[in-house]
Amino acid sequence: ISYPPPAIKSDSGDHTKWGEVETMLNMAAERIKKMGGKVELADAGTHQLPSGETVLLPPVILAEFAKDPKKATLCIYGHVDVQPAKMEDGWATDPFNLTEIKGNLYGRGATDNKGPVLAWLHAVESYQATKKEIPVNIKLIIEGLEEVGSYGLFKLIKKRRDSFFADVDFIVISDNVWATTTPALTYGTRGSSYFFVEIEGPKLDLHSGVYGGSIQEPMADLIALLGSLLDHTGKIQVVGVSDDVTPLTEDERKLYDNISFDLEEMKNVVGVKHFLQDTKEEVLMARWRYPSLSIHGVEGAFSDPGSKTIIPRKVTGKFSIRQVPNMDPPDVERKVKEHLEQVFSTLNSPNRLKVTATVGAKPWVANLQDSQYVAGQKAVKDVFGVEPEFIREGSTIPIAQTFQEETGKSVMMLPISGHDDGEHSQNEKISRYNYIEGTKLFAAYFYELSLLH
Ligand SMILES: CC(C)C[C@H](NC(=O)CN)C(=O)O
Fold first, then answer.
1. Measuring from each residue's beta carbon to the nearest atom of ligand 1, which residues come in under 6 Å?
2. From the candidates 20, 64, 81, 389, which is the catalytic residue?
C-alpha cells in the first residue's frame, strides 16, 4: 500500500459513485489479506432505488484470521463508506485528504467509521508485531453502504447465519461516539426511516414574473407538508407515531444520573443558545430514548449563490424519523404517508405527490447483563483507568438489531470516538489520543473477552 494512500471518496449517498465504495472495499480487503486474513468479497445482491431503477450492490467483506477451536470467536463489524463532504460545506481542510492539526486527524470518515475500522486492524497487528497469540478468533464483516441503510446486508446475514456466523460467539461494533470525555460502552441505538416527498407540478421551471400568482407552486406545497411534521418544541405531529415508545422505568432513569454530560459545554460544542430541554437527563433522553424527526434538505430547489427567479417544477423534500423501542419502521412509514396524504388533500393542489420511504432500520437495545459488557468494562479500566459510562446513541447502526435477532449472538458497541468528533459534519476528526488509546482498548478487549470463555 503506497503512502500517502490515495484519497478514496467512498461516499455512498449517491449510487452513481458506488465505484469509489468498491475501490475502498478492495483496498481494505487487500490490507486484511496482507495481514494474513482470509477474505471473501461476498455478493450483496441488488437494490431497487426510489426511482424504480435496480442497481447492483457493492460486495461485503467477510474475513477471518486463523481459527483455534478452543478460543471464543469475535466478529467485528464496521463500514468504510462515508457521508458526502465538500470544501464548500465549510471544511477547513480537504475532507478526503487526512490532515493532522494539533493532535487531531481531520477528514471525512476519520471517526465514522474508517478510523475505528483501522484501529481494529491495528489491534490485530499489535499482537502479530509482538508475536503474541491473539487470545480470541477474529472475524470481520465490513460493508460499504451503512450510511444509506446497509442495503443487501440484512439478506446476506440471513444467508450466512449457519455458515459465517455459526461459530461466532460475540459481535462488536465501534461506530459511535462517547457522550462525554469519559470512555463509554453503548447499549442502545435509535432506528431510522428516511422519507422522500416529491411534488411535481408544471412541465418546466417557470418564470415567476410571467406565471407567479397563477400556479400552485410545488415548493409551497412541499413547505406546507414539511411544516406540518413538527411543532416548535420538536414534537412530531404525525398522529400515533410515538404511541409505541416504551415507558421510562425508574431503573433506566437512574442510568442517566452518573453520566458526566455538561450541558454548557455541549451548547458550546454545537453552537446553540439552548436545547429544547432544560436538564442534562432530558437532553440525553431526547437524543437517545425518544424519537425525533429531522428535515434534511430539498432537491430541485434553487440553492446556488445569487438570485434566480424561477418556480421550480419539481422538488423533493427529505426528512427522517429516528425510532426507539418499540416503534416499528413499517408502521411509522404507513402513518407518515397517511399524514402527508391527508395534509396534501387540504391543499387542493393540482400537483402530484409521491412519498417514498427508505432505510427502515430498527432500533437496538442490548442486555446490560450480557458478559461482553463485563469484558468491555474491564478493558476500559485496563487502558483508561476509569469506569466506562453506560450510554445510548441517538444515531443508527442499521444492522445492529438484525445481528442480534437473526444470529442470536451477543452484540455490544465499544466506541472509541470523541463526543466532539463531528460525525457527518464539517471538519470531522478523530484525535490521535482516541485513535491510539482506542487501538489499545481493542487489543485489551480481545484479552478480557478471552477470559470469559
Ligand atoms: C441509516 C443512517 C444513515 C445511518 C447513520 N449511521 C451512523 O451515523 C453511524 N455512525 C446515521 O445517520 O445514523
1. 112, 147, 149, 175-176, 192, 359, 361, 395-398, 423
2. 81
What is the CB-side half-sphere exposure of residue 312 using CA atoms within 13 A?
20
Over its length of 453 residues, how does the chain's per-residue pLDDT go in tens digits?
566 667 899 999 999 999 999 999 999 999 999 999 999 999 999 999 888 899 999 999 999 999 999 999 999 999 999 999 999 999 999 999 999 999 999 999 999 999 999 999 999 999 999 999 999 999 999 999 999 999 999 999 999 999 999 999 999 999 999 999 999 999 999 999 999 999 999 999 999 999 999 999 999 999 999 999 999 999 999 999 999 999 999 999 999 998 999 999 999 989 999 999 999 999 999 999 999 999 999 999 999 999 999 999 999 999 999 999 999 999 999 999 999 999 999 999 999 999 999 989 999 999 989 999 999 999 999 999 999 999 999 999 999 999 999 999 999 999 999 999 999 999 999 999 999 999 999 999 999 999 997
| Per-domain residue ranges of the chain | 15-189+363-452, 191-245+290-361
Residue 113 CA: nearest ligand 1 atom is 10
In the CATH hierarchy, which fold is given to the domain comprising 191-245+290-361? Answer: Alpha-Beta Plaits (3.30.70)
In angstroms, the CA 133 to CA 198 distance is 56
Instruction: Give the pTM.
Output: 0.94
* Paired strand residues for 73: 137
CATH class of 15-189+363-452: alpha beta
Distance 351 CA to ligand 1 centre (A): 33
Residue pair 327/401 in contact by the 8 Å Cβ criterion: no
Give the closest residue to 350 by CA, choosing from 176, 175, 216, 208: 216
ipTM exceeding cut-off 0.85 for this assembly: yes
Give the atom of ligand 1 at the shortest distance from the alpha carbon of 146. 4
- Rounded to whole angstroms, the Cα distance separating 111 from 117 reads 9
